[in-house]
Amino acid sequence: METPSEEPVLKSRSARHCISTGYRLYIGHFRRIFRATWPAALVASLLSGLIGTWHANLQMQSQPGLTTAMAVVALLTVLVSVTFYAQAMTLLCHHREQGVVPRVARMFTIDGAVLRRTFICALTCGIIWLVIISLATSVSVYAMINQSKVWLAAAVLLPLALLLLLLPLSYPAVRYLTTRQTKLFALVKTDFGKGFSHYGLLFCVWLITTIFSAMAIAVACLPAIILMVANATAVAGNLAGDPIGMPAHMPNLVGCVFTLASFFQHYIMLSAFFPFYYTSGSIEAQEQERNEKKNSIY
Fold first, then answer.
1. Has residue 4 got a pLDDT over 50?
2. How much is the average pLDDT of 6-21?
3. Per residue in 117-132, is it b (16+ CB within 10 Å) or e — as a string?
4. Cα gap 130→161, rounded to integer Å
5. Are 162 and 132 in contact (CB under 8 A)?
6. Averaged over 6-10, what is the pLDDT?
7. What is this structure's pTM?
8. Residues 205-210: what's their mean pLDDT?
9. What is the DSSP string of 37-52?
10. Which band of pLDDT confidence, cut at 50, 70 and 90, is reported for residue 5?
11. CB atoms near residue 35 (< 10 Å)
12. Cβ 15 vs Cβ 208: under 8 Å
């Protein structure tokens, strides 16, 4: 029998409390989260393994038809990964409304409205990343052409500054994903300033969860990174005239390792969302308390 959560979402918390409560919710209900999301995570991981196999095979890369097919596979990987996160957001929507993470009756359970919201958020984030990467690339090219250390430093610092400036967007984004009957751009218009007023809380949660996630991903993906570097070194030597000296099954081995690493990476990255879930609730609770104080004065 399900019991209501002892930790309500709408409650003022410190950064430490938001992080600990978020990870505790994720770990405490991991079996239910895993049951609802593992099919999408498995499909996305298998597609990633297929891309890894193609990347490790020099002969496959030389075939234009396979290159086009891998571009389609990469797009499918992104779409399935978004579906994976949408399934997790469906559980959080129920948790926000009912106070419990539901027990999933079927392996594939998803809310169509939440799926649409997740795709919209993913597309928006993709556009933002594309703009930032394009800007960083343009500045880097300009720095190399002019051999300017100042512009080279700007190519590193400018994208970081933009990311930090856009950090308050995480507050309306989380609310959009876990609250029904809201529109993204309307929330951004009303909540970006609120997020900015709680920038210290958002920054602390972002910094600590990023460190935790980066360490976990580095450990989970270490075999894949080692194989990728070894294969790239062998391919570079082959292009320079040296024999590859790698076993014939190397591409298949890379694909298997990429599949496992991608599967673990999905759940590591998902865990980072839960502290922001409670951070969003903390900010919303503090804003409600502030509005109540203003109304009581007037």
1. no
2. 85
3. bbeebbebeeeeeeeb
4. 15
5. yes
6. 74
7. 0.84
8. 94
9. HHHHHHHHHHHHHHHH
10. very low
11. 15
12. yes
Provide the pLDDT confidence category of residue 1 given band limits of 50, 70 and 90: very low
Structure tokens given for 157: 């610092």
The DSSP code for 181 is: S
Question: Could you tell me if 178 and 280 are in contact, meaning their C-beta atoms sit under 8 angstroms apart?
Answer: yes
Q: CA–CA separation, 213 vs 270, rounded Å? A: 9
CB atoms within 10 A of CB 12: 15
Which pLDDT value is given to residue 241?
58
**How confident is the model over 253-278, as pLDDT tens digits?**
778 888 999 999 999 999 999 999 99
CA-CA distance, 45 to 81, in Å (whole number)?
9
**pLDDT higher for 29 or 69?**
29
Please say whether the beta carbons of 171 and 280 come within 8 A: yes
Q: Give φ, ψ of 166 to 5 degrees.
A: -90, 0
Could you give phi then psi for residue 62, rounded to 5 degrees? -80, -5
Range with lowest mean pLDDT among 35-39, 169-173, 291-295: 291-295
Rounded to whole angstroms, the Cα distance separating 255 from 252 reads: 5
Q: Among 202, 272, 287, which Cα is nearest to 10's?
A: 287
Q: How far apart are CA 91 and CA 237, in angstroms?
A: 49
Residue 8 has pLDDT above 90, yes or no: no
The dihedral region occupied by 181, where left means phi > 0, alpha psi between -120 and 50, and beta the remainder, is left
- How far apart CA 112 and CA 81 sit, in angstroms, is 15
Residue 266: C-alpha distances to residues 100, 166, 228 (Å): 23, 23, 19
CA angle at 123 for the pair 214 and 134, rounded to the nearest 5°: 70
**Per-residue three-class SS string for 235-287:** HHHHHCCCCCCCCCCHHHHHHHHHHHHHHHHHHHHHHCHHHHHHHHHHHHHHH
Q: How far apart are the first and last CA of the chain?
A: 46
